[in-house]
Amino acid sequence: MTEDMGLNRLGNHMKRIQYHRYGGPDVMQMERFEPPALRPDDIAVKVVYAAINPVDWKVRRGDLKLVTGRKFPRAMGCDFSGEILAVGSGVTAFKLGEAVFGVAPVKTCGALAEVVVAPQTVVGRKPESVTFEEAACLGTPGVTAWNALIDKAHLKAGQHVLINGCTGAVGAAAVQIALLQGAIVSGTCSADAATQAKALGVTEVLDYRKTNLATLSRRFDVVFDTAITMPIATGLCLLSRGGVFLDLEPGPAKIIRSLFDRRLKPIICTPRPAIMAALAEAARVGRLSVPSAQIVDFDAAIGKIANLEQGVGSRGKAVVAIGTAV
Question: Which Pfam families does the record cross-reference, listed alphabetically (predicted)?
Answer without folding.
Answer: ADH_N, ADH_zinc_N
